[in-house]
Each structure stands twice: as structure tokens, then as C-alpha cells.
Amino acid sequence: MATSLKQAVHKNLECPVCLSFFKDPKNLACSHTFCKGCLETLLESHGNKDLLLCPTCRGETSVPGGDVGRLQSNITVRSLVEDVKTQAKVCFRGNQEDKSLERKWSKCKKHPNYDEECFCLSCNKYVCCKCAISEHVKNAHTILEEGAYETAQKNQVEELAFKADAKIRDVIKYVSSVVDQRKKVHNLQEQGKDEIDETFEEFVQILKERKTVLKNEVEHGRLGKLKTSLGDMEESGRKQTKQIKKVLDLVMNSLKFPLQTEAVTSHKAKCQQLEELLRQIGPDKELPRRTAEEGERISFRSQGTDELQLGQLRYTPEITAIRIEW
Predict the structure, then answer these.
(1) Which of 7, 22, 46, 270, CA to CA, is 20 to 30 A from 87?
(2) CA distances, 33 to each of 53, 75, 310 (Å)
(3) Radius of gyration over alpha carbons of the chain, in Å?
(4) Rounded to 10 degrees, what is the CA torsion of 249, 254, 257, 259?
(5) pLDDT at residue 227 above 60?
(6) What whole-number distance in Å separates Cα of residue 325 and Cα of residue 117?
(7) CA-CA distance, 170 to 167, in Å (whole number)?
(8) For residues 251 and 153, what is the distance between their CA atoms, to the nearest angstrom?
(9) How far apart, in whole angstroms, are the C-alpha atoms of residue 55 and residue 59?
């Protein structure tokens, strides 16, 4: 029960956009809370600098002077986040102290009177100074002091974390763009339905069956496929963000404890996995806009009352074919 409560607290202290603890949490008019930095990123991706759309409910919030910092701060959430982080640091220090003592007394199996204070890059393991001189240096192996090796590993992780953070911000902007374009297609759907309803009122009862056919075409035809395609793009972007954060957390967590010989290979594999994720080709950022533009070329046109057909959906093809696959 204690674990479930802890998980529930952590989940409610995470920003729905960046999936991390809130940083300078700000309230929107709809009462949803997000990081100040995340809201600034969302505002930059919109054309209107004075209006924010809530990523959760799509509610509108005015931003005075385009300054997100002027929105109301969520003091309660900020205090809770600070308390949780403080408690986590205390636990982390305690674990580090215990592990540091354990690492200090890590002895060489061949020379029990010597600590394993060196690391052999060629053999990928910790060794004592006597083994380093008598065996490894003799065979032209590269030897580093334990502190120098662990510092190099930390620097590598920090560089990966920086790249991952940049990648995540880029994907967040992309997801925000997909959400906006998907809403545009949704509005086109609703507009088509409204026009169909307005025209239908002018006709007699016998046109109801035709009305249903047309609305189904709007809902499940080309516009529906475009909306589904944008939904797939959004989900793919979110999955990519979640995957990067998951692997990054594994890499960062591996540094909370001294790297024993048996853990070095696992740590390197995690770092390589993260690097591969960061090298993956990003999504086509123009595809959501082009997909929505294709939806704009689908409109409802009345055929008048003579044929009693109410109207039909007409698609205006583009000169160059568009691919909506990802």
C-alpha cells in the first residue's frame, strides 16, 4: 500500500507534457497544471502568442503580453515537488555513502592486500595497481585511475542526457504541431456536419437516409482516415519520447552506484542503446500540416433541391500526390 501511495504521489506531480516532475508549475484557466517551460514551448509553436490551448482538454487560456510567467503559479504543487525531491536526495546520499564504503574495501582477488583502484580499458574491468603493472601494462593495456574512469563515464552520460533533452524538446514541439493539425481536421469534420444539417432542414423527410450516408462518409471516409493518420503520428511521437526517457533513466540510475566489474558491460550497453535512439531519423515535421491541408480540400457542396440528393463530399486533388504514411 505504501508503494502504491508513493507511485500515486509521483504520478500526480509529473507534468503531462514532459513527463517529469513539475518545474515552476503554472495553472491554466481550466485548472490544469504544466511546467512553465513546457507552456512556453507550446506557445512558441502556436501562431497566437496571447492564447494557450490546454494539451489535456484543449481549453483556452489568455497569456497577458505573451508572458507565461505572468500566469498563476501552483504553489501547492511546487511545494510538494520540492519536498519529494528533498526526501529523494536524502535517500540517495545514504545509499551512496553505503556503496562508497563498500567500494573502498573492494580487494583484488590475486593480491588481497591491494584495493582495485585502477581500471583497464582493454580488459574492461577494475584491477589493483600491482596487477596493472605486472600484467596489464606489460601487455600494452590502457590503464586509468578509478576516479578518472568514473569521471569519464559521468561526462559521457551528461553529454547523452543533454542530447536526449534536446531530442525530447524537439519531439514535444512536433507532438504539439500534430495535435493542432488534428484539431483542424476535426473542425473540418464538424463544419461538414453542420453544413449538411443546415441544408437538410430545407428538404423533406425522405432525405434523412441520404443525410446519414453523407455524415458517415465524413466520419469514416477520407477525412476520418486523415484524422486517424494524425492520431498515429501523435502516438508515435509520444512513444518515442517515452522510450528515450526510459532508457535515459536506466543510464542515469546506473551511476547512482559505483560501477562494479560485472556492471560495466550492462552500463555500456545502456549508453549504446540511448545513442542509437538519439541517432534515429526524426519524423517528417511537415507531414501533419500537409495531411491537414489535404483535409481542407474536402468540402461539402449542396446540389440544390431539384435532385433531392442533399449534396455530396467533393475532393479537390493536389497536383503532387501526398504520402500520409509514416
Answers:
(1) 270
(2) 12, 11, 46
(3) 29
(4) -170
(5) yes
(6) 54
(7) 5
(8) 10
(9) 8
3 state DSSP class of 167: helix
> Euclidean distance between the first and final Cα of the chain, in Å?
43
The C-alpha cell at 66 is: 505573451
CA–CA distance, 100 with 108 (Å, rounded to integer): 17
Please say if the pLDDT value at position 323 is more than 60: no
Q: How confident is the model at residue 253 (pLDDT cuts 50, 70, 90)?
A: confident
Q: Which helix (H) or strand (E) holds 313?
A: strand 312-315
pTM above 0.70, yes or no: no
Report the C-alpha gap between 277 and 233 in whole angstroms: 18
**Residues 284-294: tens digit of each pLDDT:** 888 888 888 88
35 membership: H or E segment, kind and range:
strand 33-35
Which residues are registered as beta bridge partners of 61?
Answer: 52
**Element spanning 299, H or E:** strand 298-301
